[in-house]
Design goal:
Largest interface: A-B, 17 and 22 residues
Helix content of chain A: over 70%
Structural class of chain A: mainly alpha
Number of strands of chain A: 0
Order of helices and strands of chain A: HHHHHHHHHHH
Number of helices of chain A: 11
Largest sheet of chain A: none
Distance between the termini of chain B: 29 Å
Structural class of chain B: alpha+beta
Shape of chain A: globular
Largest sheet of chain B: 6 strands, mixed
Number of helices of chain B: 8
Strand content of chain A: under 5%
Oligomer: heterodimer
Chain lengths: 231, 337
């Protein structure tokens, strides 16, 4: 207990003093998470929107597949991407392994299903009468789609926030594809795992506090947007 | 004719929702659609609004057959506009809701603003121009939804139960605004409503829809099942005032009887053996605008019967609400649907 209290007090001091190493690690984490969320949104939102908006054969199957992919372990994605970008992989000549780009690729693949599935849920919740209203006012297909998108905007933002929350706290992909290189690919979660291995808890606890703070902020935002969806 | 429908059917699965051999609508006229819930009124309005397509039959719009392909339908939807029974407004301001259809039509900003102000004034919502639409009450939402259509100056305005879920003040505003559209732009109005008194007042023609079929003029008395075998070995219904409504044997328990009331009398005397006489009370009088015919609604038990009054009855002023009166009908003239 004493160890935990001591570590916690030292960690608070580290956070307040904005320790250089800690700030670098947090910056790497935020950067890769922001990029991967951006790219996943770019792909996941249109996929989710099209699946929800259009009627086609096999729609239920696609939704089931996306929901299944929500539960894929990060190490499976890490392994899959590793097979492509390692020196012996098809994309080995890009020399991506153990770079932030590799983490971004892996994390993007991880959360595309999250963004898509939550977008489908957001669009599906929109009252079908909005579509009818837009059509009866003379809207074409694109204008009708825009109306639906607009009505689902809070739900879609909530999908992006949920995806961001997933990547900021994942460890498997960052470790396997980033390699936990200090000052370069070391993220909050991989640093915490390393510090734990070393038995040095101060930085690990400090990063834990920052991560919890970020997660709290994300959840606050998420609930704010979910609340607007419900209202 | 603005619409000409022939041999139209619409089915959902095994269920036939509409089966209309022939129906037409004249430009600039006001039509009423009456019928119980599930009769097919909303489906017919959706087909007329080009939001659904029939399974078979043809729909001619302005004498041209409607092609059910999207870009073509979208053009038609700019002329024929529907107000839903429970309309939704986009989650933005009232102004932007009204601006949506105008922007689609490519109108200039100043013209858009002028029309929006006028449209809101027509429905008595001028003070709500910048209000958030999702904070309006049901009646206000219905009025703004109507205004969002009126600003588009529709050639045909389809109203699906426009006053069913609103208070009396909102209903009045909606009725006045719809009629103003007809006066100002010669808009054809097709109104589905249970408010038959209003329909009688404003409509050039009233159509009765029952189980997907157009039937009669809406003035017939329709009595719904279930039916029971009465003591006298005849079929019918026991009424709440202990009288018996007698009918021939129904084709099935859920069939509806169309009863043609032959006449009304003050003493119930009958000289024809086949006549059935029931006593009731006049509950309402209404005028059919187009023909000038006066109609009385007579409550027999809890069942309302509609009867066209003769000139003599009108002149003698012998019929007035609250008066006890007898209706006469004949078993031979009951039809089943």
């Amino acid at each position: 207990m004493e160890l935990l209290i001591d570590s916690f007090i030292s960690a608070i001091a580290l956070v307040i003093s904005l320790d250089r190493e800690m700030v670098d690690i947090v910056a790497v984490s935020l950067r890769v998470s922001c990029y991967s969320t951006f790219f996943a949104s770019l792909l996941g939102i249109p996929i989710g929107f099209l699946v929800a908006f259009e009627s086609f054969q096999g729609k239920r199957f696609v939704i089931t597949c996306l929901n299944t992919l929500l539960a894929v372990p990060t190490v499976v994605i890490g392994l899959f991407v590793y097979a492509f970008i390692s020196r012996r992989g098809v994309l080995g000549f890009f020399d991506l392994l153990y770079t932030q780009k590799a983490i971004i690729i892996g994390q993007t693949l991880l959360i595309i299903p999250v963004v898509a599935a939550f977008t489908i849920a957001a669009i599906s919740r929109i009252d079908r009468r909005y579509r009818k209203t837009a059509m009866t006012l003379g809207a074409n297909r694109l204008q009708t789609a825009f109306v639906i998108f607009r009505e689902a905007r809070y739900g879609i933002v909530a999908a992006v926030i949920a995806a961001y929350g997933r990547v900021i706290s994942e460890v498997g992909i960052s470790m396997m594809l980033g390699g936990n290189i200090r000052g370069f690919t070391r993220t909050m979660t991989t640093a915490m795992a390393l510090e734990y291995d070393k038995g040095a808890f101060t930085l690990a606890v400090a990063l834990g506090i920052v991560l919890l703070g970020l997660s709290f902020g994300m959840n606050l935002l998420f609930h704010l947007f979910q609340g607007r969806v419900r209202s | 004719m603005i619409f000409n429908i022939s041999d139209l059917t619409k089915t959902y699965g095994d269920r036939t929702i509409l089966d209309i051999p022939a129906l037409s609508f004249k430009k600039g006229a006001i039509y009423g659609l009456q019928g119980p819930n599930g009769a097919g009124k909303t489906t017919l309005l959706n087909i007329l609004a080009f939001l659904e397509h029939p399974n078979s039959g043809s729909v001619l719009y302005k004498s041209k057959p409607v092609q059910y392909v999207e870009p073509y339908l979208q053009r038609l939807r700019k002329e024929v506009i529907l107000v839903d029974q429970l309309p939704l407004l986009f989650t933005t301001t009232v102004f932007k809701n009204l601006e949506f259809g105008l922007k689609i039509r490519g109108l200039e900003k100043e013209e858009r603003k002028r029309r929006i102000v006028k449209g809101l004034d027509m429905v008595g919502m001028g003070d709500f121009i910048h209000a958030p639409a999702h904070q309006l009450s049901g009646g206000e939402t219905q009025r703004v939804a109507l205004a969002a259509r009126l600003v588009l100056k529709p050639e045909i305005l389809l109203l699906d139960e426009p006053t069913a879920n609103v208070d009396a003040a909102s209903a009045q505003q909606i009725k006045e605004a719809a009629l103003m559209a007809r006066r100002e732009w010669n808009t054809t109005l097709i109104v589905a409503s249970h408010d038959w008194q209003w329909l009688y007042e404003i409509c050039d023609e009233i159509l009765h829809l029952f189980k997907g079929r157009i039937f009669g003029t809406g003035r017939e008395t329709i009595i719904f099942g279930p039916w029971q075998k009465l003591e006298t070995n005849k079929w019918g219904k026991s009424l709440s005032d202990k009288q018996q409504l007698r009918t021939p044997a129904p084709p099935n328990q859920e069939a509806a009887a169309v009863i043609d009331v032959l006449s009304v009398s003050e003493n119930g005397a009958t000289n024809a053996e086949e006549d059935i006489v029931l006593s009731g009370m006049v509950s309402r009088l209404s005028l059919e605008r187009k023909t000038g015919q006066l109609f009385a609604t007579i409550l027999v038990g809890d069942l309302p019967f509609t009867v066209g009054l003769t000139l003599q009855q009108k002149q003698a002023q012998s019929i007035f609400p609250g008066k006890e009166i007898f209706i006469h009908y004949s078993l031979d003239r009951i039809k089943w649907i």
